[in-house]
Amino acid sequence: MSASADAPRVVLGVSGGIAAYKACELLRRFTESGHEVTVVPTAAALHFVGEATWAALSGRPAATETWEDVHEVPHVRIGRQADLVVVAPATADLMAKAAHGLADDLLTNTLLTAGCPVVLAPAMHTEMWEHPATRENVATLRRRGVIVLEPAVGRLTGKDTGKGRLPEPAAIFDACRAVLRRGGPVPTDLAGRHVVISAGGTREPLDPVRFLGNRSSGKQGYALAVTAAARGARVTLLSANAELPDPAGVDVVHVSTALELREAALKAAEDADAVVMAAAVADFRPAEYATGKIKKVEGVEPAPVALVRNPDVLAELSAHRPRSGQLVVGFAAETDDVLANGRAKLARKGCDLLVVNEVGNGKAFGQDVNEAVVLGSDGSETPVPVGPKEALADVVWDLVAKRWEPGRN
Protein backbone atom coordinates (compact mmCIF):
# COMPACT_ATOMS: atom_id res chain seq x y z
CA MET A 1 0.00 0.00 0.00
CA SER A 2 1.68 3.22 -1.07
CA ALA A 3 1.69 6.37 1.02
CA SER A 4 -0.72 9.13 0.04
CA ALA A 5 -0.51 12.85 0.60
CA ASP A 6 -2.50 12.57 3.81
CA ALA A 7 -0.70 9.44 5.04
CA PRO A 8 0.54 9.56 8.62
CA ARG A 9 4.14 10.76 8.68
CA VAL A 10 6.36 8.64 10.87
CA VAL A 11 9.96 9.18 11.83
CA LEU A 12 11.66 5.89 12.64
CA GLY A 13 14.74 6.57 14.71
CA VAL A 14 17.27 3.75 15.04
CA SER A 15 20.03 3.89 17.61
CA GLY A 16 23.15 1.77 17.83
CA GLY A 17 22.17 -1.60 19.26
CA ILE A 18 22.31 -5.10 17.85
CA ALA A 19 18.50 -5.08 17.72
CA ALA A 20 18.70 -2.46 14.94
CA TYR A 21 18.09 -5.21 12.40
CA LYS A 22 14.60 -5.76 13.86
CA ALA A 23 13.70 -2.19 12.95
CA CYS A 24 13.68 -3.33 9.32
CA GLU A 25 10.59 -5.41 10.05
CA LEU A 26 8.98 -2.49 11.89
CA LEU A 27 9.70 -0.25 8.90
CA ARG A 28 8.12 -2.79 6.55
CA ARG A 29 4.94 -2.84 8.64
CA PHE A 30 4.68 0.95 8.53
CA THR A 31 5.27 1.23 4.80
CA GLU A 32 2.95 -1.64 3.87
CA SER A 33 0.13 -0.07 5.89
CA GLY A 34 0.44 3.22 4.04
CA HIS A 35 2.60 5.32 6.36
CA GLU A 36 5.17 7.75 5.02
CA VAL A 37 8.37 6.87 6.89
CA THR A 38 11.61 8.78 7.25
CA VAL A 39 14.36 6.71 8.83
CA VAL A 40 16.83 8.58 11.01
CA PRO A 41 19.62 6.19 12.07
CA THR A 42 22.48 7.22 14.31
CA ALA A 43 26.05 6.76 13.16
CA ALA A 44 26.33 3.74 15.47
CA ALA A 45 23.15 2.21 14.01
CA LEU A 46 24.70 2.32 10.54
CA HIS A 47 27.35 -0.12 11.74
CA PHE A 48 24.54 -2.68 12.11
CA VAL A 49 22.26 -1.80 9.16
CA GLY A 50 23.49 0.28 6.24
CA GLU A 51 21.96 3.40 4.79
CA ALA A 52 21.08 1.65 1.52
CA THR A 53 18.88 -0.85 3.37
CA TRP A 54 16.86 1.89 5.03
CA ALA A 55 16.41 3.74 1.75
CA ALA A 56 15.34 0.62 -0.11
CA LEU A 57 12.80 -0.43 2.52
CA SER A 58 11.30 3.02 3.06
CA GLY A 59 11.42 4.25 -0.53
CA ARG A 60 12.99 7.45 0.77
CA PRO A 61 16.56 8.54 1.50
CA ALA A 62 17.58 7.89 5.06
CA ALA A 63 18.30 11.06 7.02
CA THR A 64 21.70 10.61 8.58
CA GLU A 65 23.48 13.96 8.78
CA THR A 66 22.62 17.28 10.37
CA TRP A 67 24.78 19.03 7.78
CA GLU A 68 23.08 17.60 4.68
CA ASP A 69 20.51 19.81 2.92
CA VAL A 70 21.21 22.53 5.45
CA HIS A 71 18.94 24.98 3.60
CA GLU A 72 15.98 22.74 4.60
CA VAL A 73 17.00 22.83 8.28
CA PRO A 74 16.53 19.07 8.73
CA HIS A 75 17.31 19.08 12.45
CA VAL A 76 14.13 21.11 13.00
CA ARG A 77 11.97 20.20 10.01
CA ILE A 78 11.89 16.42 10.45
CA GLY A 79 10.53 16.50 13.99
CA ARG A 80 8.11 19.33 13.32
CA GLN A 81 6.48 17.63 10.34
CA ALA A 82 6.05 14.19 11.91
CA ASP A 83 2.81 12.73 13.26
CA LEU A 84 4.81 10.22 15.31
CA VAL A 85 8.43 9.65 16.22
CA VAL A 86 9.37 6.14 17.27
CA VAL A 87 12.87 5.01 18.20
CA ALA A 88 13.52 1.28 18.01
CA PRO A 89 15.84 0.23 19.43
CA ALA A 90 16.35 3.01 21.97
CA THR A 91 19.64 2.41 23.73
CA ALA A 92 20.52 3.56 27.24
CA ASP A 93 22.75 6.22 25.67
CA LEU A 94 19.97 7.53 23.45
CA MET A 95 17.50 7.75 26.33
CA ALA A 96 20.08 9.48 28.53
CA LYS A 97 20.60 12.12 25.85
CA ALA A 98 16.86 12.55 25.35
CA ALA A 99 16.23 12.88 29.07
CA HIS A 100 18.87 15.60 29.42
CA GLY A 101 18.03 17.50 26.25
CA LEU A 102 21.28 16.75 24.46
CA ALA A 103 21.26 17.13 20.68
CA ASP A 104 24.56 16.05 19.12
CA ASP A 105 23.20 14.30 16.02
CA LEU A 106 20.16 14.39 13.74
CA LEU A 107 18.09 11.90 15.78
CA THR A 108 18.52 13.67 19.12
CA ASN A 109 17.80 17.01 17.40
CA THR A 110 14.63 15.47 16.00
CA LEU A 111 13.55 14.28 19.45
CA LEU A 112 14.16 17.74 20.87
CA THR A 113 12.05 19.48 18.21
CA ALA A 114 9.23 16.95 17.80
CA GLY A 115 5.80 18.34 18.57
CA CYS A 116 4.12 14.98 18.06
CA PRO A 117 3.89 11.85 20.26
CA VAL A 118 7.21 10.09 20.84
CA VAL A 119 7.52 6.36 21.46
CA LEU A 120 10.78 4.79 22.65
CA ALA A 121 11.28 1.01 22.50
CA PRO A 122 14.28 0.27 24.71
CA ALA A 123 16.76 -2.54 24.08
CA MET A 124 19.83 -3.18 26.23
CA HIS A 125 21.33 -5.64 28.68
CA THR A 126 19.40 -6.19 31.89
CA GLU A 127 22.02 -4.50 34.06
CA MET A 128 21.83 -1.38 31.94
CA TRP A 129 18.01 -1.31 32.04
CA GLU A 130 17.98 -1.77 35.82
CA HIS A 131 20.73 0.75 36.53
CA PRO A 132 19.47 3.69 38.66
CA ALA A 133 20.63 6.19 36.04
CA THR A 134 18.55 4.51 33.32
CA ARG A 135 15.54 4.18 35.62
CA GLU A 136 15.71 7.89 36.46
CA ASN A 137 16.05 8.81 32.79
CA VAL A 138 13.02 6.66 31.92
CA ALA A 139 11.01 8.25 34.73
CA THR A 140 11.97 11.72 33.51
CA LEU A 141 10.96 10.94 29.93
CA ARG A 142 7.63 9.44 30.99
CA ARG A 143 6.91 12.41 33.22
CA ARG A 144 7.35 14.64 30.16
CA GLY A 145 4.87 12.60 28.16
CA VAL A 146 7.24 10.38 26.20
CA ILE A 147 5.89 6.83 25.84
CA VAL A 148 8.70 4.51 26.97
CA LEU A 149 7.70 0.91 26.41
CA GLU A 150 8.84 -1.77 28.80
CA PRO A 151 11.46 -4.04 27.19
CA ALA A 152 10.69 -7.71 26.76
CA VAL A 153 12.23 -10.62 28.63
CA GLY A 154 14.24 -13.10 26.58
CA ARG A 155 17.50 -13.83 24.84
CA LEU A 156 19.91 -10.89 24.67
CA THR A 157 23.31 -10.58 23.01
CA GLY A 158 25.43 -13.71 23.35
CA LYS A 159 24.26 -16.18 25.96
CA ASP A 160 22.63 -13.60 28.21
CA THR A 161 18.91 -13.81 28.99
CA GLY A 162 16.78 -11.33 30.90
CA LYS A 163 14.75 -8.16 30.68
CA GLY A 164 16.02 -5.76 28.03
CA ARG A 165 15.10 -7.45 24.78
CA LEU A 166 13.48 -5.28 22.13
CA PRO A 167 9.75 -6.04 21.95
CA GLU A 168 8.73 -7.81 18.76
CA PRO A 169 8.25 -5.43 15.80
CA ALA A 170 4.59 -6.44 15.46
CA ALA A 171 3.97 -5.46 19.07
CA ILE A 172 5.79 -2.13 18.68
CA PHE A 173 3.74 -1.45 15.56
CA ASP A 174 0.49 -2.15 17.44
CA ALA A 175 1.56 0.26 20.20
CA CYS A 176 2.36 2.95 17.61
CA ARG A 177 -0.92 2.35 15.82
CA ALA A 178 -2.74 2.88 19.11
CA VAL A 179 -0.96 6.23 19.47
CA LEU A 180 -1.74 7.31 15.90
CA ARG A 181 -5.35 6.13 16.04
CA ARG A 182 -6.42 9.06 18.20
CA GLY A 183 -5.55 11.48 15.39
CA GLY A 184 -4.07 14.06 17.75
CA PRO A 185 -1.99 14.43 20.89
CA VAL A 186 -1.99 11.27 22.97
CA PRO A 187 -3.17 11.88 26.51
CA THR A 188 -0.59 10.97 29.12
CA ASP A 189 -3.24 10.87 31.82
CA LEU A 190 -2.07 7.40 32.86
CA ALA A 191 1.59 8.39 33.18
CA GLY A 192 2.98 7.38 36.56
CA ARG A 193 0.08 5.00 37.14
CA HIS A 194 0.29 1.23 37.52
CA VAL A 195 -2.68 -0.57 36.02
CA VAL A 196 -3.42 -4.29 36.22
CA ILE A 197 -5.54 -5.94 33.54
CA SER A 198 -6.77 -9.51 33.25
CA ALA A 199 -7.54 -11.00 29.84
CA GLY A 200 -8.63 -14.26 28.26
CA GLY A 201 -10.55 -17.10 29.85
CA THR A 202 -9.63 -19.41 32.69
CA ARG A 203 -9.54 -23.17 32.22
CA GLU A 204 -10.46 -25.60 34.99
CA PRO A 205 -8.86 -29.03 34.42
CA LEU A 206 -11.04 -32.12 34.59
CA ASP A 207 -8.33 -34.61 33.67
CA PRO A 208 -4.93 -34.33 31.91
CA VAL A 209 -6.58 -33.66 28.52
CA ARG A 210 -9.92 -31.97 29.31
CA PHE A 211 -10.96 -28.76 30.95
CA LEU A 212 -13.98 -26.53 31.58
CA GLY A 213 -13.46 -23.23 29.77
CA ASN A 214 -15.12 -20.45 27.81
CA ARG A 215 -14.86 -18.69 24.46
CA SER A 216 -13.01 -15.56 25.54
CA SER A 217 -10.10 -14.76 23.19
CA GLY A 218 -8.48 -12.11 25.37
CA LYS A 219 -8.62 -9.48 22.60
CA GLN A 220 -10.47 -6.91 24.71
CA GLY A 221 -8.07 -7.26 27.63
CA TYR A 222 -5.09 -6.99 25.30
CA ALA A 223 -6.62 -3.87 23.73
CA LEU A 224 -6.90 -2.38 27.21
CA ALA A 225 -3.23 -3.16 27.83
CA VAL A 226 -2.03 -1.66 24.54
CA THR A 227 -4.02 1.55 24.96
CA ALA A 228 -2.95 1.95 28.60
CA ALA A 229 0.71 1.60 27.63
CA ALA A 230 0.19 4.13 24.83
CA ARG A 231 -1.19 6.57 27.41
CA GLY A 232 1.88 6.22 29.61
CA ALA A 233 0.86 3.63 32.20
CA ARG A 234 2.98 0.88 33.63
CA VAL A 235 0.91 -2.16 32.71
CA THR A 236 0.71 -5.63 34.20
CA LEU A 237 -1.33 -8.00 32.06
CA LEU A 238 -2.64 -11.24 33.59
CA SER A 239 -3.15 -13.41 30.54
CA ALA A 240 -5.37 -16.46 30.95
CA ASN A 241 -4.87 -18.82 28.00
CA ALA A 242 -4.97 -16.06 25.39
CA GLU A 243 -3.22 -17.16 22.22
CA LEU A 244 -2.03 -13.65 21.40
CA PRO A 245 1.48 -12.18 21.21
CA ASP A 246 2.63 -10.25 24.26
CA PRO A 247 1.95 -6.51 23.77
CA ALA A 248 4.96 -4.21 23.65
CA GLY A 249 5.70 -2.31 26.82
CA VAL A 250 3.62 -4.58 29.02
CA ASP A 251 4.63 -6.98 31.80
CA VAL A 252 2.75 -10.19 31.08
CA VAL A 253 1.97 -12.83 33.70
CA HIS A 254 0.57 -16.04 32.23
CA VAL A 255 -2.03 -17.92 34.29
CA SER A 256 -4.45 -20.73 33.55
CA THR A 257 -7.01 -21.42 36.28
CA ALA A 258 -9.25 -19.13 38.32
CA LEU A 259 -7.19 -19.84 41.44
CA GLU A 260 -3.99 -18.90 39.63
CA LEU A 261 -5.62 -15.73 38.35
CA ARG A 262 -6.80 -14.83 41.85
CA GLU A 263 -3.30 -15.25 43.30
CA ALA A 264 -1.70 -13.19 40.53
CA ALA A 265 -4.36 -10.47 40.72
CA LEU A 266 -4.10 -10.03 44.49
CA LYS A 267 -0.32 -9.79 44.24
CA ALA A 268 -0.30 -7.34 41.34
CA ALA A 269 -3.03 -5.19 42.91
CA GLU A 270 -0.88 -4.42 45.96
CA ASP A 271 0.65 -1.36 44.27
CA ALA A 272 -1.87 -0.80 41.48
CA ASP A 273 -3.82 2.38 40.89
CA ALA A 274 -6.46 0.53 38.88
CA VAL A 275 -7.42 -3.10 38.33
CA VAL A 276 -9.47 -4.00 35.26
CA MET A 277 -10.85 -7.53 35.28
CA ALA A 278 -11.63 -8.18 31.63
CA ALA A 279 -10.94 -11.92 31.80
CA ALA A 280 -13.78 -14.41 31.73
CA VAL A 281 -13.25 -16.21 35.03
CA ALA A 282 -14.90 -19.60 35.51
CA ASP A 283 -17.55 -19.56 38.25
CA PHE A 284 -17.04 -23.26 38.95
CA ARG A 285 -14.34 -25.93 38.77
CA PRO A 286 -14.52 -29.72 38.97
CA ALA A 287 -14.63 -30.92 42.57
CA GLU A 288 -12.13 -33.66 41.72
CA TYR A 289 -9.30 -33.85 39.23
CA ALA A 290 -8.77 -37.21 37.55
CA THR A 291 -5.05 -37.92 37.34
CA GLY A 292 -5.62 -40.17 34.33
CA LYS A 293 -7.74 -39.56 31.24
CA ILE A 294 -11.38 -40.39 31.93
CA LYS A 295 -12.18 -43.35 29.70
CA LYS A 296 -15.35 -44.01 27.77
CA VAL A 297 -16.89 -47.38 28.72
CA GLU A 298 -19.29 -48.87 26.18
CA GLY A 299 -22.82 -49.22 27.54
CA VAL A 300 -22.05 -47.21 30.69
CA GLU A 301 -23.18 -43.64 31.16
CA PRO A 302 -20.47 -41.29 32.49
CA ALA A 303 -20.66 -40.21 36.11
CA PRO A 304 -21.90 -36.65 36.68
CA VAL A 305 -19.18 -34.05 37.11
CA ALA A 306 -19.46 -32.45 40.53
CA LEU A 307 -18.59 -28.77 40.63
CA VAL A 308 -17.45 -26.40 43.37
CA ARG A 309 -17.48 -22.61 43.34
CA ASN A 310 -14.40 -20.62 42.44
CA PRO A 311 -13.56 -17.50 44.45
CA ASP A 312 -15.23 -14.31 43.24
CA VAL A 313 -12.05 -12.46 42.30
CA LEU A 314 -13.74 -9.22 41.22
CA ALA A 315 -15.77 -8.93 44.43
CA GLU A 316 -12.71 -9.72 46.54
CA LEU A 317 -10.62 -7.06 44.80
CA SER A 318 -13.42 -4.52 45.22
CA ALA A 319 -13.91 -5.26 48.92
CA HIS A 320 -10.24 -5.36 49.94
CA ARG A 321 -8.34 -2.55 48.25
CA PRO A 322 -4.73 -2.27 49.44
CA ARG A 323 -4.35 1.34 48.27
CA SER A 324 -6.48 4.40 48.90
CA GLY A 325 -8.10 5.60 45.69
CA GLN A 326 -7.58 2.33 43.85
CA LEU A 327 -10.21 1.84 41.16
CA VAL A 328 -11.67 -1.52 40.20
CA VAL A 329 -13.34 -2.16 36.84
CA GLY A 330 -15.27 -5.31 36.00
CA PHE A 331 -16.72 -6.82 32.85
CA ALA A 332 -20.09 -8.51 32.51
CA ALA A 333 -20.83 -10.71 29.52
CA GLU A 334 -24.61 -11.14 29.32
CA THR A 335 -26.94 -12.96 26.94
CA ASP A 336 -30.27 -11.41 28.00
CA ASP A 337 -31.60 -8.51 30.08
CA VAL A 338 -28.15 -7.03 29.59
CA LEU A 339 -28.52 -3.73 31.44
CA ALA A 340 -30.69 -5.08 34.25
CA ASN A 341 -28.29 -7.92 34.92
CA GLY A 342 -25.38 -5.50 34.62
CA ARG A 343 -26.76 -3.10 37.22
CA ALA A 344 -27.41 -5.98 39.61
CA LYS A 345 -23.88 -7.27 39.11
CA LEU A 346 -22.38 -3.81 39.65
CA ALA A 347 -24.12 -3.54 43.02
CA ARG A 348 -23.19 -7.10 43.95
CA LYS A 349 -19.53 -6.86 43.01
CA GLY A 350 -18.88 -3.42 44.52
CA CYS A 351 -16.63 -2.20 41.70
CA ASP A 352 -16.39 1.38 40.44
CA LEU A 353 -17.17 0.66 36.78
CA LEU A 354 -18.72 -2.30 35.03
CA VAL A 355 -18.44 -2.81 31.28
CA VAL A 356 -21.57 -4.64 30.19
CA ASN A 357 -21.83 -6.24 26.77
CA GLU A 358 -24.00 -8.79 25.04
CA VAL A 359 -22.29 -12.00 23.96
CA GLY A 360 -23.29 -14.96 21.83
CA ASN A 361 -24.42 -15.25 18.21
CA GLY A 362 -21.06 -13.97 16.98
CA LYS A 363 -20.91 -11.00 19.33
CA ALA A 364 -17.84 -9.99 21.37
CA PHE A 365 -15.99 -13.29 21.86
CA GLY A 366 -13.20 -13.67 19.34
CA GLN A 367 -14.22 -10.57 17.40
CA ASP A 368 -12.16 -7.45 16.69
CA VAL A 369 -15.10 -5.16 17.48
CA ASN A 370 -17.22 -4.70 20.55
CA GLU A 371 -20.26 -2.78 21.76
CA ALA A 372 -20.95 -2.06 25.41
CA VAL A 373 -22.40 0.17 28.09
CA VAL A 374 -20.11 1.25 30.91
CA LEU A 375 -22.04 1.50 34.18
CA GLY A 376 -20.67 3.58 37.03
CA SER A 377 -21.21 3.15 40.76
CA ASP A 378 -22.35 6.79 40.73
CA GLY A 379 -25.31 5.83 38.53
CA SER A 380 -23.73 6.94 35.26
CA GLU A 381 -24.18 5.10 31.96
CA THR A 382 -21.77 5.51 29.06
CA PRO A 383 -22.84 3.74 25.84
CA VAL A 384 -20.04 2.72 23.47
CA PRO A 385 -21.20 1.99 19.90
CA VAL A 386 -19.88 -0.87 17.80
CA GLY A 387 -16.26 -0.25 16.96
CA PRO A 388 -12.73 -1.57 17.44
CA LYS A 389 -12.00 -3.00 20.85
CA GLU A 390 -9.29 -0.37 21.22
CA ALA A 391 -11.99 2.32 21.05
CA LEU A 392 -13.87 0.73 23.94
CA ALA A 393 -10.59 0.45 25.83
CA ASP A 394 -9.95 4.18 25.42
CA VAL A 395 -13.43 4.97 26.76
CA VAL A 396 -12.71 2.83 29.83
CA TRP A 397 -9.42 4.66 30.45
CA ASP A 398 -11.12 8.03 29.90
CA LEU A 399 -13.62 7.18 32.64
CA VAL A 400 -10.90 5.84 34.95
CA ALA A 401 -8.76 8.96 34.48
CA LYS A 402 -11.73 11.22 35.25
CA ARG A 403 -12.19 9.46 38.57
CA TRP A 404 -8.59 10.29 39.46
CA GLU A 405 -9.18 13.99 38.94
CA PRO A 406 -8.86 16.12 42.10
CA GLY A 407 -12.01 16.03 44.17
CA ARG A 408 -13.30 12.76 42.68
CA ASN A 409 -11.45 10.42 45.06
From TrEMBL:
Region described as Phosphopantothenate--cysteine ligase: 195-409
Chain positions covered by the region annotation Phosphopantothenoylcysteine decarboxylase: 1-194
Record has DNA damage as a keyword: no
Boundaries of every Flavoprotein domain copy: 9-177
NCBIfam families: coaBC_dfp
Function of the protein: Catalyzes two steps in the biosynthesis of coenzyme A. In the first step cysteine is conjugated to 4'-phosphopantothenate to form 4-phosphopantothenoylcysteine, in the latter compound is decarboxylated to form 4'-phosphopantotheine. Catalyzes two sequential steps in the biosynthesis of coenzyme A. In the first step cysteine is conjugated to 4'-phosphopantothenate to form 4-phosphopantothenoylcysteine. In the second step the latter compound is decarboxylated to form 4'-phosphopantotheine.
Similarity-based family: In the N-terminal section; belongs to the HFCD (homo-oligomeric flavin containing Cys decarboxylase) superfamily.
Name of the protein: Coenzyme A biosynthesis bifunctional protein CoaBC
